[in-house]
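[09:14] KT: can someone run the structure on this one? pasting the chain below
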Amino acid sequence: VGTFHRVCLDILREFGHLVGLESNFLIFNADQQKELVIQAMENLGINKEVMHPNTLRFAISNLKSQNLAPEEADKFQQRDGAVWNPKFVKTVRNVYELYQEELIRSNAVDFDDILLVTLRLLEEQPAVTARLRQRWHHILVDEWQDTNVPQYSLIQLLAAPSQGRAVASVFVVGDADQSIYGWRGADFTNVERFEKEFAASRILLEHNYRSTSTIVEAAQSVIERNTGRVEKKMLSDKPSGALVHLHQMWDDQ
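[09:31] RB: done, C-alpha cells below
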C-alpha cells in the first residue's frame, strides 16, 4: 500500500539500474530543483529579474505532469486550452534541457521524475513489467480524479492483461466533481477515460451521509452545470438544516 510516488520509488530502488539510475540515487527537493534552474538560467544568460526561477521550475513540472520532454514544450495545454507564447516555450525548453542533464549527471531525480523514470522503465523493460504484473494481481487506486497523465499510463501498464490474467484487474475510486489538484497536473477527465478505455463497470455512490440535504442540493445545482462530468444525483437523508449564505469579500483577508 502506498502513494504512486512511494510505490514507484520502491520500483526504482529495485530496478532503476536498468535505466541508468544507481541504487543510491538522490531525490532533489524544491530548493535543490530551484538551484538547478538558476544554474541553467545563468548558463543561458537569462536574467532572474526578468524571469523568476520558480516560474520556470513550475513550468518544467507542468510539462512532466503531461509526460512531455523538453522538445515537446510547445504541446503543453492548460486546463482552459490556452497555450504558452513561443518566446516562453523556447525559454522553458532550453532551461528544461540543461536542468534534466544536470539531474542525470547528479544521479538524481525530482519529484515528477519518480513517476516518469518508472514509466520509462516499464516501457523499455517488458521483463520487469511482466514481473510486477505477477507480483500484483489486482490493483486498486483511490482518488482517481487527482491522477495525471503519467499515473494513468502506469496503471495501463501494470494492470494490463498478462500471463494468468485474461483481462485487466483494476478498481479505481474517484469523483470528477471533487477534483481540486488541476494546478499540479491532475486531470479529472481520467475518470471518464478510464471507463471507456478499460471497458469498466460503473458503480455510482450517490448517497451523502455527511451533509444536510440543503447543502447537498445547493452543491448539486452548481456542479451539474459543469461539462464533461459523470452524471449522478447526490442525495441526503439528513434534515434540511440551515440555509446556505453567500458572502462576497474584497480579498482573502
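[09:33] KT: thanks! The mean pLDDT is 92.
[09:34] RB: yep, looked fine to me
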